# Entry
Amino acid sequence: MGQCCSSKRQQVSQMAGNEVRDLSMKTGLNIDELKSYYGEFIKDYPCGHVNKKQFRKIYRNFSSDDAKEREKVEQVFKTFDQNNDGTIDFREFMIALSCLSKGTLEQKLSLAFYLYDENGDGVLSFEEVLDIVKAMYSMAKDQSATANLPPAEVFAKGLFAELDKDKDGIVTLEEFMEVGCHDVIVANLLLANVAVDGIEEDYFE
# Structure
């Protein structure tokens, strides 16, 4: 356990400048704010990660503790714990908090794109968009809500065609943002899996 903790601490302490800048862009926090949060995070969690119970406790400090908020926390933690080890690191932690907080539509879409880009190559493939749709279908509390929808693969093909503006077989961040920022229905589809609040129609007026 001590060796693991030491390894994690070393990994976190070596965040490069470009990583900090990237995190700043994704969370909307400036670098000084991130450094301050980072110092507190490592002081409280020297292993460099938090588990679900700790994350839930932290979020309660600035949110109501009602059933809706608890469900939102559970979903965001699950989404960012991509290797299913029951923990998230500092970078994931800050992005997860950003998803839960009130941000601009552009910030939320940017965070969603980062999340959906599973292999980190900076673009979305059809397979990654299909994963978005599959997750959306599986998250539907009322299965009748998806009963009249086409199979996930058919739905994903339509969504991918809409996002892939230049028809080159990939979706860039710019394409993702352009479509999401101009279509409330698509925006809510793209943001459904990161448990942020829905976008209202009047946002686009």
Notes: Confidence is low (pLDDT under 50) at residues 1-13, 198-205. DSSP finds twelve helices and four strands in the chain.
